[in-house]
User: Fold MerR HTH family regulatory protein from Priestia endophytica DSM 13796.
Amino acid sequence: MENSTLDQEKAYWTREVAELLDIKEGTVRKYARLMEENGYNFHRNEHDQRGFFERDILLMKRIKALSKTKGVTLEDAVNTVTKGVMVAERDSITPAVMNLQEELERSIERHKQTMEAFIQLKNENTEMKELLMNLSEQMKQQQTYIENSLEKRDQVLLESIQKTLEQRREEENTGWFKKLFKSK
Assistant:
C-alpha cells in the first residue's frame, strides 16, 4: 500500500468499524487476525494499533456476508476475500472497483432471485385463489343438491305417510260399513 494515499484517507479504529458493520469489536479483531494470517496488511500506528481504511471495511463487510452463506466457514470467507484482493493487486485492478462490481453483481443476482420467488409466489397465489373459488362453487352446488334432495325426500315421505293414513281411514270406514251391513 502506498503511504501517500493512506495518509490522505481517514482511518477508523476497531470500535468504529464494529459500529459500522454492526458486529462486536472482538469480531473485528478476529477478522483482522485471520486476514493477516492470509497475507493481508493493515495500517498500524506507532503503538502498533490497526487503523482501518474504507477498503478494509469493505473487505470485512464482504467477509461478514460470505460467512453467513450456508456451508461457508469464516475461514473460507476470509480466504476467498483476501485471495481476491491479492489477485486484484497482482493484476493492478483496484480492489474497491472489484468489490463494487462484485457487490453489484451479487445484488443483481439477489434481486433476480427475489423477483423470481415473488413471481412464483404470485402465480401460486393466483392458482390458490382459483382453486378456492372452484372449491367454493362446488361446495355451494353440493349444498344446493343436498338441500333439494332432502326436500324431495321429505316430500315423498310426507306423501307416503298421508297415503298410508288415508288407506287406513278408508279401511276403517269400509270395515265399519261392512260390519254394519253384515249384521243386518
